[in-house]
Amino acid sequence: MKYIYPACFYHEENGQYSVIFEDLGGIATYGNDLQDAFSMAEDLLCTWILECKKDKEALPAPSSIKELTPSDKNAFYNLISADIDSYMIKTKKIG
User: Fold this and answer.
1) CB 77 within 8 A of CB 10
2) How does residue 59 score in pLDDT terms, banded at 50, 70 and 90?
3) 12 with 48: CB under 8 angstroms?
4) Cβ contact 4:82 at 8 Å
5) pLDDT of residue 93
């Protein structure tokens, strides 16, 4: 199953990118560069969703990216896709 949530990417002074999923209680990660930040964001989203499913918690509805505006001039929103089935196979979390 696939899920898509918006994440806010903040370009830091040291060249890294912080990533925050506001819809998911502000869970956050970072990457050493933009490509790493996208990879880390996908991993975090997949892990978070799997934990919610394991705990039988409801997933919040994702915000519409069209309605989001970053509060920082060095930030932007992007949609992150979580393909849970592929992630579980990749990380060998299936049975």
Assistant:
1) no
2) very high
3) no
4) yes
5) 57
Which amino acid type is present at position 19?
V
Q: Which residues contact 3 (CB under 8 A, 6 or more apart)?
A: 45, 49, 59, 62, 81, 82, 84
Where does 2-83 have alpha helices with state H? 34-54
Amino acid 43: pLDDT = 96
**Residue 69: other Cβ atoms inside 10 A:** 8
Output the pTM of the full model.
0.89
- Residue listed under structure tokens 């409801």: 58
Give the type of residue at 24: L
> Residue 26 phi/psi, 5° resolution?
80, 20
Q: DSSP 3-state assignment of 46?
A: helix
Q: What percent of the chain has pLDDT over 70?
A: 97
